[in-house]
Amino acid sequence: MDSDANENSEKTYDNIFNYYTSYGHASLWIRQRALRLIINSVLIKFIAVRMQNSTDHEHLRWKQNRMRANLASTSSELCGDVAFFFSRPRSEKSNSEDVPREYAILPRLASLLAWPLAVAVSTENVPEPQRQWLQNKLVLVARSLGDAILGRVAERGAFIF
Question: Residue 121: which H helix or E strand, with range?
Fold first, then answer.
């Protein structure tokens, strides 16, 4: 595999890429998706508690599976949003002096990703392959920002208060 193909496989998760007209627009969508992850995770927990006190397990199990599917779909879309932030034109990458090569993202863009990525890697029920890919991106964001706390969130896969 050549280096360009390897680099492209690292930039996207399962070749999912969402294109936006600006980073601000992408930032709004990524934050909305992070909130949807939280909501779906809470609903999954709520349904699990409700199943303990209900006789309608089949319907509740269906709802829980639906919430898990929503969460998986939302996290997949979030991966496509994150990929947009890591896909700068080759000319911008080579001329950028303020970002070391291994960071792969400008600090001003990394700051837009910090909270949504921390939420995504901390949310229960996010499919593991997506969580790992998002954790890898959070590591790059933490390095770009020089933020040790975000680095620990990326290592542990959870935001611990």
Answer: helix 107-122
The pair of structure tokens assigned to 93 is 């990458």
Q: DSSP per residue over 38-68, as a string?
A: HHHHHHHHHHHHHHHT-S-HHHHHHHHHHHH
The whole-angstrom separation of Cα 134 and Cα 15 is 14
Nearest-angstrom CA–CA distance, 87 and 31: 19
Given a contact cutoff of 8 angstroms between Cβ atoms, the answer to whether 67 and 23 are in contact is no
Query: pTM to 2 decimals?
Result: 0.80
Q: Where are the domains of the chain?
A: 19-156
Banded model confidence at residue 10, pLDDT cuts 50, 70, 90: low
CB 66 within 8 A of CB 60: no
Task: Measure the CA–CA gap between 96 and 86, rounded to whole angstroms.
Answer: 14
* Mean pLDDT of the 134-149 span: 91
Measure the CA–CA gap between 18 and 12, rounded to whole angstroms.
10
